[in-house]
Amino acid sequence: MLLEDKNAVIYGGGGAIGGAVARVFAREGARVFIAGRTQAKLDAVAHDVAATGGKVETALVDVFDQGAVDRHADAVAATAGSIDVALNAVSVMHDQGTPLADLSLEEFMRPVDGFLRTLFITSKAVARHMGRARPGVILTLSEPGAKLAVPGILGHAVSAAGKEAFTRVLAAELAPGNIRVVGIRPHATVDAPAAGSYTADLFEPLAAASGSSVQEFLEVGLASGTLLKRLPRLAEIAETAAFLASDRAGAMTGAIANLSAGALVD
Fold first, then answer.
1. N or C terminus of the chain: which is more exposed, having fewer CB within 10 Å?
2. What is the DSSP string of the chain?
3. pLDDT digit string, tens, across residues 113-151
4. Which architecture characterizes domain 7-187+232-259 according to CATH?
5. What is the pTM of this model?
């Protein structure tokens, strides 16, 4: 198994990507600690993991509360002995589609502050319990907006680019301590737009403006801009995350794994 005897913390573990990664990490032998703000979502993921014999624990944690995140990371390390892998899969609802002339400063800053604040808080909390004799891995998530030049995504694009810059610089800083930092850049996924989900809520205004459903907007609109003419699947993101977190990717750090299905080629 790729992650046998590893201890993994997933923030946003009740969400679509976080939950998918938790299930694969557990399947690959990791002891998984999932944290988030909605107990019902965490319990649903934990139920799936436990049903397959995986080891999982849940915790209600507000990732905007630095003290709460620090205390949770300390508790995980005290219980498990170490933190070997961490992923921040927290979503921050934000505007997409509004041009500069109509975009407020608050809406522009919402994803920039939200995504980068939680990434800083969670990375700082887990890094204290990583590395040295046991290799540590911090995984980050960004989006194609980090490099796409399209109108109406100013805040989104700046936050995505910031997450990738954070990944590169943190990798350089933590490498001497035997900690790798690797980014994953997926596109939107088509198997997570259920009503009330982050994906559905994020793209509903754009879909409505184009006269289509969210599913049609994703499968036809966004997918048409990729080389593969489709969007990545949750399973593909989760399986990639497991590989990157494993010792098989031990020479990889400061890099961004491009899972955009060819929306970006780099």
1. C
2. -TTTT-EEEEETTTSHHHHHHHHHHHHTT-EEEEEES-HHHHHHHHHHHHHTT-EEEEEE--TT-HHHHHHHHHHHHHHHS---EEEE--------S--GGG--HHHHHHHHHHHHHHHHHHHHHHHTT-BTTB-EEEEEE--GGGT---TT-HHHHHHHHHHHHHHHHHHHHHGGGTEEEEEEEE---TT---TTSHHHHHHHHHHHHTTS-HHHIIIIIIGGGSTTSSPPPHHHHHHHHHHHHSGGGTT--S-EEEESTTSS--
3. 999 999 999 999 999 999 888 999 999 999 998 888 888
4. 3-Layer(aba) Sandwich (3.40)
5. 0.92
